């Protein structure tokens, strides 16, 4: 009988391949790193929860910005320079006063930022921005 050499016999691999194991472990690590902060809720969630506890303002006024950038505050036309002084007086009388700003869809972002900065300068703490031209009452 002819003897077979070990060269042609199936060999047993006793070790584990490390590369696929490392790939799997890195994938799991990245998944945990990304998902744990999302599932636990970060500091921004706490800040949003704190803001949501604030009651809506009992009294609001409407600031309408027209296409030609003229301003109407509480139904009366007003100059941009006079708006801050008028709002400061209103906020001093009612610190929880809210201002709803209605802007046209074509208003550029820098113009909206100027308006919001003016509201901040006047001391308005509660604001809302609505995109549209006329109020729906």
Order of helices and strands: HHEEEHEHE
Reported by name, the CATH topology of the largest domain is Nucleotidyltransferase, domain 5
> Domains counted in the coordinates: how many?
2
Gap between N and C termini, in Å? 104 Å
Oligomer: single chain
Beta fraction? 15-25%
What strand line-up does the widest sheet have? 3-2-1-4-5
Helix-strand category: alpha/beta
Which parts are unreliable, with pLDDT below 50 for 5 consecutive residues or more?
none
Write the layout of secondary structure elements.
Blueprint: H1 18-40, H2 43-52, E1 60-65, E2 71-73, E3 76-78, H3 80-93, E4 98-103, H4 109-121, E5 126-131
Parallel strand pairs: 1-4, 4-5
Antiparallel strand pairs: 1-2, 2-3
Give an overview in words.
This protein has 137 residues and is an alpha/beta fold. It is built from four helices and five strands, in the order ααβββαβαβ. The protein has helices at 18-40, 43-52, 80-93, 109-121; strands spanning 60-65, 71-73, 76-78, 98-103, 126-131. Strands 3-2-1-4-5 form a five-stranded mixed sheet.
């Amino acid at each position: 009988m002819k003897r077979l050499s070990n060269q042609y016999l199936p060999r047993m691999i006793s070790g584990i391949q490390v590369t696929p194991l490392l790939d799997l472990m890195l994938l799991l690590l990245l998944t945990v790193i990304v998902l744990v902060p999302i599932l636990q809720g970060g500091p921004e969630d706490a800040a949003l929860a704190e803001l949501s506890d604030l009651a809506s303002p009992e009294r609001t006024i409407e600031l309408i910005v027209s296409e030609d950038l003229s301003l109407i505050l509480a139904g009366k036309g007003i100059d941009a320079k006079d708006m801050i002084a008028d709002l400061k007086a209103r906020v001093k009388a009612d610190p929880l006063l809210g201002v709803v700003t209605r802007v046209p869809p074509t208003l550029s972002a820098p113009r909206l930022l100027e308006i919001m900065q003016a509201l901040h300068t006047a001391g308005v703490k509660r604001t809302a921005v609505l995109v549209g031209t006329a109020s729906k009452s």
